[in-house]
Structures are given as structure tokens and as C-alpha cells.
Amino acid sequence: MDATTLLTTQSMTVSEFRCDAGPNDMPFAECRTGHSIAYVRSGSFGCRCRAGFFELVAGSMLIGAPGEEYTCTHEHVSGDVCLSFFLGEDLVETLGGRREAWHVGATPPLPELMVLGELAQSAADGNSDLGLDEVGQILAARFVDVVSGKARKHTTPTTRDRRRAVEAALWIDDNSRAEVDLEQAARQAGLSPFHFLRLFSSVLGVTPHQYLVRSRLRHAARLLTDDDIAVTDIAYDVGFGDLSNFVRTFHRAAGVSPTKFRQASRGKRKILQEQLALN
Hints:
The protein is of the alpha+beta class. 47% of the residues lie in helices and 21% in strands.
């Protein structure tokens, strides 16, 4: 089995697992040391645990709990790919819900969880302006709500809450050129990452990572308009890790490439006219 770690924070580790085991391979057992959610992206496998035996297919989720043993088999097809979220105890406590939820063993392909699993994969692939840590927390909270059968209460932000969210947004904007993750921003607000994510999104209508990406895009647009700095230099200067990600994200937001945006800002109206015609 090949494992690739995609994200490591204090609250969560996210890894991709690719297994090529087949019907002729011996089943293998493993014991969980913490809580986890593994979203099956493709393939199929069987799993036996204390909760029973489950056949998991694309869209299913394998749920891990501390001390539980899981034996996986591949009786029908060869291989599977899973996106796995390993959750810290503080996050599990913050999520609340019934502790029994973490002992269900697995879930079938449930639409309210599948769509978040695919959203997480999109974030992992760099095709979303949501952070992988954000989607992981949203997915974990949704799992707890669905299995517990109880919707999470909506609370109206207080004046103090709104101030916290605004001050956090200002801090993110000031530091958008640096690597900023959910936990760093939450510490600035004096909240747990999960509560900060809920508060920030409720008050400002975007997640912290979405605001971070949009701050970078705003700074980039200003530099493209005002200066003769190379597009590559702008990408790194505003905080993007690589040029291709910057070009793809900017095009998704503006409808044109950074180069064409710069040309349009300098009087080439045909570019903007073509864009308006497309929209």
C-alpha cells in the first residue's frame, strides 16, 4: 500500500492511500490509535471490525476509533484509493455528538458525505479555493451530525464574535503573502479551529482559506495593473506556491489569464469585450 501525506496540522493529518491488493492476497489487520474517516474514492474492499462486516465501494466511508481492529479484504476486485482524515482528540471533543458515532465501522455512500469527500479531493488537487483542513473539519462535523441524527444548532454571532471575525480577516489580509493555515488564524482569534471556521464563515460569508486566496488575487490584480513585474514574480510575491496554480486560480476568478488581464488594464478593450460577450 502506498501512502502520501497531503496535510499535517495539530488538529488533523490527511493522507492518500493507494492499495493494489487483490483476491489472491491475504487479508491484513490493523489497529487504530485515534479517530479517522477514510473516504473511498475508487475501487472496493471489505472490512471486518467489531461493528460487523462491510463491503465498501466508491463513496463509502470507513470510520476509525481508538483501539478498534480492522481486517481488510479484496475478495471481488483489485485495489482501492482512499482519502483519509486522522483527527486529533481536541477536534473530536469540539465536534461533540455521540461517542457511539465513531464505532459504526463504516457508512454506505451517503450523498451528504460523498459530495464533501469529492470537495476534499478537489481541495487536495488544488482545484478549490477551500483549504483541505477546512473541508476536513466540515466533513467530520457533517459525519457526526448525520450519524447522530441531530442537526447542529445555528447560533447568531454576537458583536464580540463579529469583531473577532473582522480582526481575523484583517490579519489574514496583512499576512496573505505568507503560509497561513486555519490553526494559525484561529489562534489569532482565540478560538478552536472548528469554532473559528464556523464563526468566520457565518460573519463574512467565506471561509478563512477562501478569503486568503482572494486576498492574494486582489494583491495580484493590483500588481498586474500598476507594475511591470513579471507574472511569475507576482505569483510568488503575493503568496502562491507555484505559477501554474496562480494562473489557474486567477483565470477561474477573472475569466482571463493574468497576462490578458494586464493587457486589458492597459487599454486593450477587445479582451474585456470578448469576456463580457462570453458571460
